[in-house]
Structure formats: structure tokens, C-alpha cells
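> forwarded from #structure-qc
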């Protein structure tokens, strides 16, 4: 079978230049490819063949209509699977379909209206706290407020200690993940590099935090909070009658975080 390879940029320096451009500004890199080569683009990151789809119809085919036929790339599973386990971003096939059905009710439009009230309260608190402060670090403030929103909607907690603990874990994990995801060749985990050790500690702390909350909630005789975690724990797949296992709940909560 002859396949037509879509247009795309030359394989500059074994894909290192493409990897660096994606790492520095993935949105600008993708928009530049679309502008130069169209809605379907082919390029290489070293030995990895990459395709970019920009037209809504093609994106719908990949993400929805033909999702069960399209597997997640090995690098994504290798990097994000290290801390997300087998959550929705990492899994594919029948398992992805089942997990999506179980978690989808938690994002029903009626539920989003409830979450929006939380967003509004935290935004108003932020604006009030900035009064009279003069110059503020807006990037740091936005990260802090976003984490408060996430922890409130997921776990019904806004404790400052929880926000700081998650922030201290998520930031090094994100930095490590972005560094590794856009590498042409993955960094061996056994190399004694500072960011490798930081990532290991952060992943362990994030896992401990989320597992602790999930286990505590499962031990309750009756739900004490109407948050996203409670919705996921009580969800039943209409096709199979199954619920998520404790491990699956943990993976989905970390994925959303």
C-alpha cells in the first residue's frame, strides 16, 4: 500500500531544532507549521514520525469519531504515565472509552454551573486581597488561585497548606514532563540528575496526597462532600455496571490535577 506523506519541514539536525521549538513555544511552532504547510503536516523528531492535524474535521476524527483506532504515542505514555498512571490522557482503546463514560457525568453542564460559583468566589477573594498591595507577581497569583479552584472542585478543600503542598509537587513535575516530552531521546531515569531526583520526590508526594484523600473518602459511611471526587467514586458505567477501582480513581484525580 502506497501512502502519501503530507508536506512538512526538513528534518533539521535530526529533529533537535523541531524539539527545541516545540519545547520553547508549542503553540507558535504548530501555528507556523499550519501557515507554511497546511492543515496536515508531517515532521520528524529524530526517529519519531509526527503528524499535525489542524482542521476541525480531522481533529474530531482523531479525538472522537475514530478515537478507538488511534493509540496514544509511546513517549506520552512513557512521560505522563509516570505520574498519571493510566488516566484518560495516557490510556486508549476500550479502557479509555470506559473511563470517559465514568467521568463524563462529573462535567455535565449543571455541574459546571456549580463549579463556576467556586471560580467566582475565589476570583473575588483574589481581587480583594490585591487591594492596596501595589505591584504583584501575577503569574504566581494565578497559579495559586488555579490550584485553590482545582482542590476545591476536586476535593472540597481550600486549606493553604494543601495548596502549597500541591504547588510544590506539581511545578517540578510539569517542568520535568515538558523537558522529557520534547526530547528526541528520553533521558535514562538512572542518571543522577538534579531534576530527576526532584521529579521523583514530587511524584511521590503528589501520589501520597491524592491516595490519602481517596482512601479517606472511601472509608466514609456516607458522602460528606458533593465534589468531583464524590461524583467519580459513585459513577457506574451504564454499559458494564462497573465502578472505578481505587487505583483508577487515583489516576484520574492526578490527571485532572
Amino acid at each position: 500500500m502506497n501512502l502519501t506523506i503530507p508536506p512538512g519541514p526538513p528534518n533539521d539536525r535530526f529533529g533537535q531544532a523541531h524539539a527545541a521549538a516545540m519545547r520553547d513555544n508549542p503553540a507558535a511552532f504548530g501555528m507556523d507549521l499550519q501557515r507554511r504547510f497546511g492543515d496536515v503536516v508531517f515532521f520528524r523528531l529524530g526517529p519519531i514520525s509526527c503528524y499535525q492535524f489542524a482542521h476541525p474535521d480531522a481533529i474530531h476524527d482523531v479525538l472522537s469519531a475514530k478515537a478507538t483506532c488511534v493509540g496514544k504515542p509511546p513517549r506520552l505514555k512513557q512521560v505522563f504515565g509516570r505520574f498519571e498512571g493510566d488516566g484518560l490522557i495516557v490510556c486508549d482503546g476500550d479502557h479509555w472509552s470506559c473511563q470517559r463514560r465514568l467521568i463524563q457525568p462529573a462535567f455535565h453542564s449543571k455541574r459546571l454551573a456549580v463549579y463556576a460559583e467556586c471560580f467566582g468566589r475565589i476570583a473575588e477573594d483574589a481581587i480583594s486581597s490585591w487591594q492596596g498591595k501595589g505591584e504583584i507577581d501575577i503569574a504566581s497569583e494565578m497559579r495559586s488561585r488555579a490550584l485553590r479552584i482545582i482542590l476545591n472542585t476536586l476535593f472540597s478543600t481550600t486549606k493553604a497548606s494543601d495548596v502549597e503542598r500541591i504547588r510544590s509537587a506539581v511545578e517540578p513535575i510539569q517542568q520535568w514532563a515538558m523537558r522529557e516530552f520534547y526530547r528526541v531521546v528520553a533521558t535514562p531515569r538512572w542518571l543522577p540528575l538534579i531534576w530527576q531526583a526532584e521529579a521523583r520526590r514530587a511524584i511521590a508526594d503528589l501520589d501520597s496526597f491524592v491516595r490519602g484523600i481517596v482512601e479517606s473518602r472511601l472509608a466514609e459511611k456516607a458522602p460528606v462532600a458533593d465534589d468531583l471526587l464524590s461524583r467519580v467514586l459513585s459513577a457506574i458505567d451504564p454499559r458494564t455496571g462497573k465502578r472505578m477501582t481505587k487505583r483508577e480513581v487515583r489516576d484520574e484525580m492526578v490527571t485532572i490535577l
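QC bot note: The radius of gyration is 21 Å. The beta strands are 40-45, 48-53.
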